[in-house]
Amino acid sequence: MAESLLRQSAEAGSPEGMAELGDLFLSKSRLSARAVPWWRRAAELGHTGAIVKLGTIAR
Question: What is the tens place of the pLDDT at every residue in 12-29?
Answer without folding.
Answer: 999 999 999 999 988 887
